[in-house]
Amino acid sequence: MEPGTYAVDPLPTGPPWRLWQEVGEEVAARQGVYAPVYSVSFGARGKIVIAPR
Description:
single chain; alpha+beta; two-stranded antiparallel ribbon; elongated
């Protein structure tokens, strides 16, 4: 990112986390995870990322 710009992260980040085995492939894909991993985030979406100047 260029200095002084921002972006909105559409994917969930942070807690709560749920195990891949519990949620399954379809629910994980809705969260933006397309390959088996240990856990899947169900945290907040739309966080703002800022590149300092």
